[in-house]
Design a protein that fits this description.
Blueprint (H helix, E strand, L loop, with lengths): L11 E3 L3 E6 L7 H6 E12 L6 E9 L11 E8 L9 E8 L1 H6 L7 E10 L2 E3 L3 E6 L5 H9 L1
Antiparallel strand pairs: 1-8, 2-7, 3-6, 3-8, 3-9, 4-5, 4-7
GO molecular function: catechol oxidase activity
InterPro entries: Polyphenol_oxidase_C
Protein name: Polyphenol oxidase C-terminal domain-containing protein
C-alpha cells in the first residue's frame, strides 16, 4: 500500500510509471447523467521525443481505499501506440481520451471523488504535461436532424 499525490503542474518524463491522484468532475453520476455524458481520462498535448521508433504507454485506474492505493495498478482502461511512418527525427504530439464510465462502476468507485491514474511506459520516451478526468457530453443528433440528413 502506498500514498499517491496529485500530478502537479510541471510536465513529467515518462521513463517509469507515473501514478497520480486525479479529481473527478462529479462523484455518483446518475443513470440520466451517464446517458448524456461519458467520463474520460484525458492526457492532452503529450509528446513523443523520437518519432523514428515505435512507442507505447498504457493507462490504468484504481480506487483509493482510505487514502491509500495498493501496489496493484488497477484496471487497464486503454493506451496509446505510435507506429513511425518516416525516418525523420522529429517530436510527435498527440492527445488521448479514454472512456472510463463503465470501469468506474466495475471497480465500485462511483462515489469516489478522486481516482488513481497510472501511466505505464512500454517503449519510447514521452513527456506528459498532465492528466485529468472530464465529462464529455454525448452529441447525439435528434430524430429531426437524422431525418433531415437522410433527405439530403
Amino acid at each position: 500500500m502506498s500514498e499517491v499525490k496529485e500530478f502537479r503542474t510541471e510536465p513529467r518524463v515518462l521513463y517509469r510509471t507515473i501514478r497520480a491522484l486525479v479529481k473527478r468532475p462529479r462523484a455518483s453520476l446518475t443513470m440520466d447523467d451517464k446517458k448524456e455524458e461519458t467520463e474520460v481520462v484525458v492526457i492532452d498535448d503529450f509528446e513523443l521525443q523520437d518519432s523514428t521508433r515505435p512507442a507505447r504507454f498504457d493507462v490504468y485506474i484504481a480506487k483509493l481505499d482510505e487514502g491509500i492505493v495498493s501496489s496493484d495498478l488497477g484496471e487497464y482502461v486503454g493506451g496509446y501506440v505510435y507506429i513511425p511512418h518516416s525516418t525523420d527525427r522529429i517530436s510527435h504530439q498527440a492527445d488521448l481520451q479514454i472512456g472510463i464510465t463503465g470501469i468506474v462502476e466495475d471497480i465500485e468507485a462511483d462515489a469516489s471523488e478522486e481516482l488513481v491514474v497510472s501511466i505505464v511506459p512500454r517503449g519510447g520516451l514521452f513527456t506528459i504535461p498532465g492528466v485529468s478526468i472530464q465529462l464529455l457530453k454525448h452529441e447525439i443528433p435528434s430524430s429531426e436532424e437524422l431525418n433531415e440528413e437522410s433527405l439530403d
